[in-house]
Design a protein that fits this description.
Blueprint lengths: L6 E2 L3 E4 L6 H6 L4 E7 L2 E6 L3 E5 L6 E5 L4 E7 L5 E9 L7 E13 L6 E8 L6 E6 L5 E6 L3 E6 L9 E6 L7 E9 L2 E8 L3 E5 L7 E6 L8 E3 L8 E4 L4 E4 L4 E5 L4 E8 L2 E7 L6 E7 L4 E8 L4 E5 L2 E6 L2 E7 L2 H10 L3 H10 L4 H18 L2 H9 L7 H5 L8 H13 L5 H13 L3 H8 L10 H11 L2 H10 L3 H11 L3 H9 L3 H18 L1 H13 L16 H14 L6 H13 L5 H9 L5 H11 L2 H10 L3 H10 L3 H11 L5 H9 L8 H14 L4 H9 L10 H41 L20 E4 L4 E3 H7 L10 H30 L3 H11 L8 H10 L5 H8 L7 H6 L16 H11 L7 H6 L22 E2 L7 H7 L2 E4 L31 E4 L41
Parallel strand pairs: 1-26
Antiparallel strand pairs: 2-29, 3-4, 4-5, 5-6, 7-8, 8-9, 9-10, 11-12, 12-13, 13-14, 15-16, 16-17, 17-18, 19-20, 20-21, 21-22, 23-24, 24-25, 25-26, 27-28, 28-29, 30-31, 30-32, 33-34
Length: 1058
């Protein structure tokens, strides 16, 4: 055989008769006619119709009878438990006649009654010829049968069910002999049926039903048992063995062949191996050869007796010979590799490791050993090839150290290049490779490495450029940087190495805006020093294109003031509406540095109002720019600084002009002028007189403050203020005289009021009013008279007043006075609490701030919380505590004054000034006119909020109301009426306080007087006949005149007049 030229190894171990003779006893006189395997069983069919299932445990057999006569063919599907069988059964009517049947069993499902595989189907095969071949597709939809007459049957349908199957008859040729082998295989182009006879090999495309396409593959066939299918090879589907060789086919043609000569009895495909049983002439034994057709070596070769069948299961190869079962066990991968390593067959070891899907670390170790072996033999190129396959796993330094010799620099270069292509090179590797090129002056290889355009970059660009620069290959570094758009490196080479500034500017101008910004930030200062105009234009253009703030380029022009001014002016012209204040401030700073020729530009820039005024003020002050300072002082309204500036400069006239110009807006300028100008020797008496006149007219300072201010100045004399003091003393004397006249008037008015009160309390009162003060109609009985000399019809009192004991006309005035008194009392107590806390507090300022925030000085509604808190801190003073607690809820005087002058709106809330303030204001308006207190009070509006009860509106217990009947004989009626006197209770409490009857009526009240006995006269009401109806007022004053009986609803105990 020509296969002896392949290397031979012993990768299998042969075990004799693993069944121990049990198989021969099982078969007895029968012969194994077919074999198959799968799903954990070896399946044998014999000539007696029995099927034997051999399990893994000691190959124990399970036997069941399938056919009456014999089992011809069997195929166990790999992906399911279905086993398809073809055999012979007796004819139902004639036992001497055998009929072929196709049966299906499922070995995955065991019948619980018999313990045998589950029976699925049985179909009679319609043929007059022997069944010579069987093939079942793994998709369980196709079954192919070959016959001795050269015909084929293709069954379509579920192989586990007999119904619904459709039969298609196919033929190999006109004069064909028996079919020797068939196979079903699905590939990329569809599903194909391969068939071989003794003369030919065919393929049928059975992908589409009823459109089968036959292709003649070869004019030579094979004997029975020498046609098999291959599952693991993509290019080969069907293998045929002949005496001269083994041929491989696909759906179109014969792909290749292997020259394995010899008479072959069996072919079998086991894993990646082709197993051939062959014999030579005269030899009784059969040689079992196991070929690795991919790696081209013989894995095993051994002799056994006559071979009946080959089959595999559980990873082992079984040989059936003369009813005996032998097994070939493949050695593990590591054992095989050790055998190969000992013989230095590293190439085969690598192939085996790849086929066995060896792990990456194991493969790398094999490559390393192979490389070491070749290195020792002197095959450096081969060694480098194997070392390159270890990249990523083996440390590169292991290889580099072996090839550092200058004689092997080419091999090292090749390894480093592969290292870069794999992306496993670091900076040191790139540096080493480029140094190899540069030291050898091999520009061709350097260009090949860095200038290749048809491949991706497989090295660190920065390191490559850096090494080229260090070696002096500036052109290579520049070309590499430009090619890969390394802008930073391009500019470094142009500016630092080549000193070509113009090309650098040209290169930057062609970049995108973002790259231009980065380049100018980094190299702009260098370019400005060499090419200022071009760099300035480029910076302005970069700002114009957007995305860059003009402030980002300011630092570039620091060393070039004129270029800085040019740049900033162009930026302002370009974006005047969007420029930030920083640009204007910077431009102002550089304008100030160029004074005095740029003074006009400074003022123009300040007038744009785009500069930061505070920063501009600092800049102008540091630069001593007079015009800028004065403009900014005026703009910021810092007028006193203008005054100080003129005084410091000795310009008194302009200082006075400043006071005249801005004095109405800032009156304190005159005070500052009084303090500053006298120190100036140029100050004249006219200037000082004008200053003092303005201070006096605006009342900015008192004379003592003026004298104190002038005393602290060194240039002031008494002559400057003599006229001012004389004039002030004269005006003050006039005020004193005016006040003396007011005091006299007030004393006279007070005496008049006291006399009036005395007459009201002790003297008789005569009512002479003949008309009702409400309706202006003549009075008639019954009528009501008040001590204020107002008289009303009784019905008018009820109509115009809510309280019949109060005069409707005087009610508003009395109520206003009471409100003022009570607000003063309330404020008095609140202020007392405030002063008490202020005296005892550790931090008086914080206390004042708290009272301000809580509204004490505004009279807010939260006065209750303030007073309560103050009362808690004054527990030692019971009198003050009682005073505070009984005056809660009243409005302060300041609150009342706030509403003064408001019209009678919907709110109905008005406030009034105190009596003293009213008198003072009235005296200032007209000192010669005497106004009575009652007139002052009557000038207040009449609308007052109804927040106090009617009883509280009474001034004192001394208020008296008299109910009288007006007759033609007033004096007689008053003298003849019955009189009764009552003394009012002498206590300190207000008897009319409905809200709090215990509230004290403070005797410090200026309207309070000691209670006196009040005579209440009850007058009889005279009817039209002038006859008195009653003698005493003890009856019901509102009863019926014509009925002597008392009213049912009248209770005499409730009569207030009884």
């Amino acid at each position: 055989m020509s296969n002896f030229q392949w290397r031979r190894f012993n990768f299998f171990e042969f075990s004799k008769e693993v069944q121990g003779g049990n198989l021969a006893e099982l078969l007895e006189d029968s012969v194994v006619t077919t074999t198959t395997s799968g799903r954990g069983h070896l399946i044998l069919g014999d000539s007696s119709g029995f099927l034997h299932y051999l399990g893994r445990n000691d190959l124990t057999a399970t036997t069941l009878r399938i056919f009456d006569v014999a089992v011809l063919h069997a195929q166990q599907l790999k992906q399911s438990g279905i086993c398809i069988l073809v055999g012979l059964d007796h004819h139902p009517s004639d036992p001497n006649i055998s009929i072929p049947y196709l049966k299906a069993y499922n070995s995955d499902k065991i019948d619980p009654k018999t313990g045998h595989p589950n029976y699925l189907r049985s179909s009679k095969i319609a043929t007059n010829s022997d069944v010579t071949a069987l093939a079942v597709h793994e998709n369980q939809n196709l079954i192919a049968l070959g016959f001795g007459d050269g015909s084929l049957q293709l069954w379509r349908g579920d192989v586990s069910r007999g119904r619904g199957a459709r039969l298609k008859n196919l033929t190999l040729g006109m004069m064909e002999t028996s079919v020797t082998g068939i196979a079903l295989r699905t590939g990329a182009q569809g599903t194909f049926l391969y068939a071989s006879s003794q003369n030919d090999v065919y393929s049928f495309n059975v992908t589409t039903k009823d459109k089968e396409i036959k292709v003649h593959l070869d004019s030579k066939g094979c004997r029975k048992g020498l046609a098999i299918t291959v599952d693991l090879m993509s290019e080969t589907h069907f293998v045929v063995g002949r005496t001269d060789a083994v041929y491989c086919y696909n759906a179109e043609c014969c792909t290749h062949c292997y020259a394995f000569e010899g008479e072959k009895s069996n072919l079998y495909w086991f894993r990646n191996y082709l197993v051939i049983a062959s014999s030579s002439e005269g030899d009784k034994d059969v040689v079992i050869s196991i070929f690795d057709v991919q790696n081209k070596f013989i894995a095993y070769s051994g002799e056994v007796p006559k071979v009946s069948a080959l089959l595999s299961e559980w990873g082992n190869l079984f040989v059936l010979s003369e009813n005996k079962l032998y097994v070939l066990i493949e050695k593990d991968t590591q054992t095989k590799l050790d055998i190969l390593f000992k013989k230095n067959f590293y190439d085969i070891a690598i192939k085996i490791a790849k086929n066995q899907r060896y792990d990456a670390d194991g493969l790398v170790d094999i490559f390393r050993q192979y490389g070491d072996h070749l290195y020792v033999k002197g095959d450096y190129s081969g060694a480098i090839d194997n070392y390159c396959k270890t990249i990523g796993q083996l440390e590169p330094s292991y290889v580099i150290r072996r090839f550092l010799d200058a004689q092997r620099i080419d091999n090292l270069t090749a390894y480093l290049q592969v290292l870069h292509r794999r992306g496993a090179a670091n900076e040191d590797h790139t540096t080493l490779l480029l140094n190899c090129y540069t030291k050898l002056k091999d520009e061709d290889k350097l260009n090949e490495f860095i200038m290749t355009e048809d491949r991706e970059v497989d090295f660190d660009l920065d390191i490559a450029i850096k090494v080229c620069r260090q070696a002096g290959y500036f052109e290579h570094a520049l070309a590499l940087a430009k090619k890969h758009e390394k802008h930073d490196w391009v500019l470094k080479i142009q500016l630092e190495d080549r000193k070509n500034y113009s090309q650098a500017v040209e290169y930057i101008s062609k970049l995108d805006p973002l790259s231009v910004e980065k380049s100018l930030r980094k190299y702009g200062s260098i370019l400005v020093s060499v090419l200022p105009e071009e760099t300035t234009e480029m910076a302005v253009e970069s700002c114009k294109n957007g995305g860059v703030l003009p402030e980002d380029y300011i630092h570039l022009f620091i060393i070039k003031p004129k270029q800085m001014v040019t740049y900033l002016e162009k930026i302002i012209e370009l974006e005047s509406d969007e420029v930030s204040p920083q640009i204007y401030n910077t431009l102002l700073e550089y304008y100030l540095a160029l004074l005095p020729e740029s003074e006009v530009k400074v003022l123009d820039l300040l007038r744009t109002q785009n500069c930061n005024l505070d920063q501009a003020l600092i800049l102008c002050k540091n630069a001593s720019c007079k015009s800028g300072l004065l403009y900014l002082y005026e703009k910021k309204r810092i007028y006193d600084e203008i005054l100080v500036y003129h005084v410091r400069e000795g310009d008194t006239r302009n200082a006075l002009e400043t006071c005249r110009k801005f004095g109405d807006e800032d009156r304190q300028l005159w005070v500052s002028a009084l303090r500053l100008i006298p120190n100036d020797p140029n100050a004249t008496s006219e200037i000082m007189s004008e200053i003092l006149e303005r201070i006096e007219s605006l009342k900015l300072m008192s004379p003592l403050e003026v004298i104190s201010t002038l005393t602290s100045t060194s240039g002031a004399t008494l002559g400057l203020v003599r006229d001012y003091l004389l004039k002030y003393i004269e005006s003050e004397q006039q005020v004193i005289d005016e006040n003396q006249r007011a005091i006299t008037e007030y004393q006279a008015e007070t005496e008049k009021i006291k006399n009036k009160i005395d007459s009201l309390e002790n003297g008789p009162i005569v009512f002479q009013c003949s008309k009702c003060s409400a309706c202006s109609k003549p009075l008639d009985l019954p009528s009501v008279h008040f001590l204020c000399k107002h008289s009303f019809h009784k019905l008018c009192v009820a109509s115009f007043s809510d309280n019949e004991n109060e005069c409707p006309v005087c009610f508003s005035e009395n109520k206003n006075i009471l409100d003022i008194i009570k607000s003063q009392e309330s404020n008095k107590t609140a202020h007392e609490a405030f002063h008490y806390q202020l005296e005892t507090a550790q931090d008086g300022f914080s206390l004042v701030a708290e009272y301000f925030g809580r509204g004490l000085f505004r009279g807010d509604e939260d006065l209750l919380s303030i007073i309560n808190e103050a009362a808690k801190n004054m527990s030692h003073d019971k009198s003050i505590l009682n005073s505070l607690s009984n005056n809660v809820g009243l409005q302060s005087e300041s609150r009342i004054r706030m509403g003064e002058g408001k019209s009678n709106g919907s709110s109905g809330v008005l406030s009034y000034s105190s009596e003293a303030r009213l008198r003072l204001d009235q005296g200032s308006m007209n000192t010669n006119k005497n106004v009575s207190e009652s007139r002052l009070r009557s000038q207040a509006p009449s609308s007052v909020p109804q927040t106090v009860s009617d009883a509280r509106l009474r001034l004192n217990e001394g208020s008296k109301v008299s109910l009288c009947s007006n007759t033609s004989q007033n004096s007689n009626a008053s003298s003849q009426g019955s009189k009764s006197r009552k003394s009012l209770p002498e206590n300190d409490f207000n008897p009319f306080d409905e809200e709090d009857s215990t509230a004290p009526f403070d005797k410090k009240n200026p309207f309070y007087s000691e209670p006196v006995a009040c005579e209440v006269t009850t007058l009889k009401v005279i009817d039209s006949s002038s006859q008195l109806k009653q003698e005493e007022a003890s009856g019901n004053p509102f009863g019926n005149d014509d009925n002597d009986e008392k009213d049912d609803d009248y209770d005499e105990s409730l009569n207030p007049f009884s």
